[in-house]
Structure formats: structure tokens, C-alpha cells
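Technical appendix A lists one of the benchmark inputs used to test multi-chain prediction within the project. The record comprises two sequence entries:
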Amino acid sequence: QVQLQQWGAGLLKPSETLSLTCAVYGGSFSGYYWSWIRQPPGKGLEWIGEINHSGSTNYNPSLKSRVTISVDTSKNQFSLKLSSVTAADTAVYYCATRRKGMLYGYYYYYMDVWGKGTTVTVSS
Amino acid sequence: SSELTQDPAVSVALGQTVRITCQGDSLRSYYASWYQQKPGQAPVLVIYGKNNRPSGIPDRFSGSSSGNTASLTITGAQAEDEADYYCNSRDSSGNHPRCVFGGGTKLTVL
């Protein structure tokens, strides 16, 4: 059973770069995509982006100019960097596995394992 | 703004059946997945694909889909089902594939 452990700096100043890492334990690192999701206080979930073991990425268009997701297959880890943060980036950040299936010609995607979340606060 | 639309809040009497819906064009091409989130906790996957439940999710949770609408049904709601529920889908309508979440539905069990 895959488990995710995430960590990173929890307090940033405006204009700094957010940096988080998620380690994958107990399962295959290849064959899946690995996602980042965030949730501002009192608000809903927002998908940030995803990466596979080969380094292929997809990003949320609204964040794409500031986001970099990378992978380190030697350590079974993937990371998120978000540059030029502002107070609007204050949120709980989650990492998650992203899997894919197909049925009757329809694809489906789902995130079945989530990290515990890291609270990131941006304040001067 | 979310491109998957959910009712912000729904209530259900204990033991009764409730349906939470999610609407969006991407649901014509992809099955939705559904997540339950309780305060202070990470989301938990409850339904994926046509109507699949991960191990450990009670069979009172079920999913369905028709046209541009996906639904999560809880048959015989329990007090512990009170939570926020989010739908999620793939969206390939733009230049690059992405994932989208609905705005969430707060379920109150009366």
C-alpha cells in the first residue's frame, strides 16, 4: 500500500518561493502520475499539477507561469516549487497519487492516496 | 471559478438517502471521482470510475453519471457521513489536459 509523506517550509514572505517535497513509500514509483493539490483556508480544492516518473508534467493554466513540479526517481520523491508567492497562496498543500483507468471507452482519473497536508502561510 | 458545479450545501435526515450532484461539460467525456473531507483532514476517495469504491468505503456510497452530470448517492446516511464532498474530473478541452474540482458540497446529517 502506497503511503505519502510530505514536508516543506510552512512560513514564507511575499515574493519568496514555496518548496515542498513528497516521498512515496510502499509501492511502485513508475506507472503513475503524482499530483499536487491545495486548499486555501475555508475554500475548496484546487489542482496545481502532476508529474510522472519520466518527468512529463501537466499544470493548472492559472498557476503554470509560477509552478515547477519535478521528480527524483532515485529517491522516489517528487517536489513542488511555486515562485513569487503572495498571501493568496496561503493554503494547505497536499500531494497525492493519480491513477487512470478506462471503461466502455471512457477514461477515468482518480487520486486514491493523499499526503497529510502541509500548511503554508505567506505573510510579511 | 470552478468548471464543475456543485450545490454548496445539502442536508439529509439520519438514515435517509441523499444525492449530491456535479455538473460540467468534461463529465460527458470522463467519469467523475468523489472525495469526502472532514474538518482538519485530507480528502478521502469514496467513488471512482463508473461506480467503484475503494477498500474500506461503505457500500452505502454509490456513484452514477448521465450526460454532463455525475452523482454521488448515500443510501442510509449516517452521522459520520457529515462532511464536505468534492467531485473531480479530467478536462482535455484546452491545449493541455488538466484536472478540475467542483466547488464542494457541505453535507449536513440532521
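Chain A touches chain B at residues 35, 37, 44-47, 50, 58-61, 94, 98, 101, 103-104, 106-112, 114-117 (CB under 8 Å). The mean pLDDT of chain A is 95. Comparable benchmark entries are summarised in Table A2.
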